[in-house]
Write a structure and sequence with these properties.
This protein is of the alpha+beta class. Helices cover 58% and strands 13% of the residues. It has eight helices and three strands; from the N terminus they run βββαααααααα. Strand 1 and strand 2 form a beta hairpin.
Length: 180
Amino acid sequence: HVMVAVEINGIVTKYYDTEPHERTNRFWKLREVTDLQGLALHYNNLGAYALRERDLKKASAFFAISHKLAPGIAEILSNYGLYYIYKEDYATADSVLETAVALDDDSYPAWHNLLYLAKKTKNQTKYNRLTRQLKNKDFPSLNLFFANQAYQQQKYQEALDLLNEINPTSTRLHVVYLFK
């Protein structure tokens, strides 16, 4: 996330939260946030960095602060859910991620983390339900995710079909590792 402040005559009047598009470096999903939400997103980012470093103690502290400051932001809950996955507390992870999706049905990270959880816990029923729910959403990165799954199962034509459905100029396209 990138926090953008609008300053007029030396006084910050508004804050915006945005995410850079990974292929173009242009910003997308620009939304106005309060000072408190901006601070919460800052702690969320610190938690995400700690999580990447596998420092679960620091990540937990940052996510707890973030969630306390702004409990209704799906991106915060999505990262908090990922923390619980890493901690192998799958029931809590599921609850947190379902709450994130309920708060923001367009939260790509929350949907992606729910799919990841279903796959990790080998919950095929939930994975299939989520897959059906996501078929009508405009999440190009999920097409990449599903194409990767098809490829791993040696369903090469299905993988190619999913890749061909992606609009490469979509501002909603996240760059992900496709084939390992």
